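We emphasize that the prediction below concerns an isolated chain of 119 residues; any contacts that depend on oligomerization or on bound cofactors are therefore not represented. The input was used exactly as deposited, without trimming of termini.
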Amino acid sequence: MAVGGKIMVKSVSDEPEVILAHWGVMQQNLVGFRLVGVHAATGVARVTSPIVEFEEMAMTAKTESGRTYRLRGPADPDAAAEMIHKHIRMWGLTVHDVAMADISDLALALPRNPQGSWH
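Result of the prediction step, given as a token string:
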């Protein structure tokens, strides 16, 4: 469903887990690290809320909303760059507000717990 040109996503209780394809990581000033990618079931591009946990071995992330994202396949920098540029335009941001990031950048931003995941 679209409202005001923006696509509304299902609530976390209705959709607690999403498989994300053609994904990447972006860092947004004053917000943190977020995933960008394509919802594998719907084909719709998505920018997540900030990442609060990341499990590298399982390639899963939990975001501030409480939703879990399973990352399908390797990162896709070209698709991620396109989604980040759309995000910049949609929200009136500049290239100084948002940058592409890498999974390894999460290690610096999220502390590692004893089980090996970052949060």
